[in-house]
């Protein structure tokens, strides 16, 4: 899709709000993800007692590029980045890479997945009390989606190739409601979406979040990743 549909479904939206109240979920804004200085002192204080990968709704506020590089109790600082030296790259041009390691799950895909699911929740298009969120990918996007779902009080299904790492599946077993293995490995993307088609026709009440046709994916990177890159560019 080329835009985010903001059509309100009031009944489901009321149930989503009730679920958020029950689980003490607070959803960060794009402005806060771009600039964590806008996050309240109360939330920052809570984060000092929470691990980076913990299944805790306050970790929604760690979906940004500014997390302090620590496994637990960190708040926010400058954008995490590194510079590749010319002795390694063989070129004179400075090459800077922003680092996603210090996101929850160790990958920035939690942001892309957040931006796909949250608009559906706040409009009532996705009902966390009845529907399941399906996250297909070869790895980090489905991990991010399953993690975000857990923080947002939603059931999830992760779909990824059976050839991915044992550690990845072990972690997903603790986070996703269900994990489906498809044939192949990193390059076997078609098989993932064959399974999505099968699920879509199964009659189950679910929503498939395909990162390649979800505008929220691109919006998050434009608004949040782009801002982080600009911040580093101006710094160096």
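Sequence proposed for the structure above (236 residues):
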């Amino acid at each position: 899709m080329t835009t985010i549909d903001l059509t309100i479904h009031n009944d489901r939206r009321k149930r989503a709000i009730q679920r958020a109240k029950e689980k003490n979920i607070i959803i960060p804004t794009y402005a806060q993800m771009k600039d964590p200085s806008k996050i309240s002192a109360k939330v920052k204080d809570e984060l000092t007692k929470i691990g980076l990968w913990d299944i805790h709704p306050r970790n929604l506020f760690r979906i940004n590029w500014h997390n302090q590089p620590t496994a637990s109790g960190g708040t926010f600082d400058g954008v995490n980045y590194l510079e590749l030296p010319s002795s390694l790259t063989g070129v004179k041009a400075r090459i800077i890479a922003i680092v996603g390691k210090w996101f929850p799950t160790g990958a920035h895909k939690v942001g892309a997945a957040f931006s796909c699911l949250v608009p559906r929740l706040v409009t009532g298009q996705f009902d966390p009390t009845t529907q399941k969120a399906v996250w297909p990918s070869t790895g980090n996007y489905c991990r991010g989606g399953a993690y975000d779902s857990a923080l947002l009080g939603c059931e999830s299904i992760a779909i990824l190739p059976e050839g991915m790492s044992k550690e990845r599946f072990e972690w997903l077993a603790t986070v996703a409601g269900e994990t489906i293995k498809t044939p192949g490995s990193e390059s076997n993307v078609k098989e993932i979406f064959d399974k999505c088609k099968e699920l879509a026709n199964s009659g189950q009440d679910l929503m498939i979040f395909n990162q390649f046709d979800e505008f929220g994916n691109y919006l998050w990177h434009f608004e949040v990743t782009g801002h982080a890159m600009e911040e580093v560019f101006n710094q160096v």
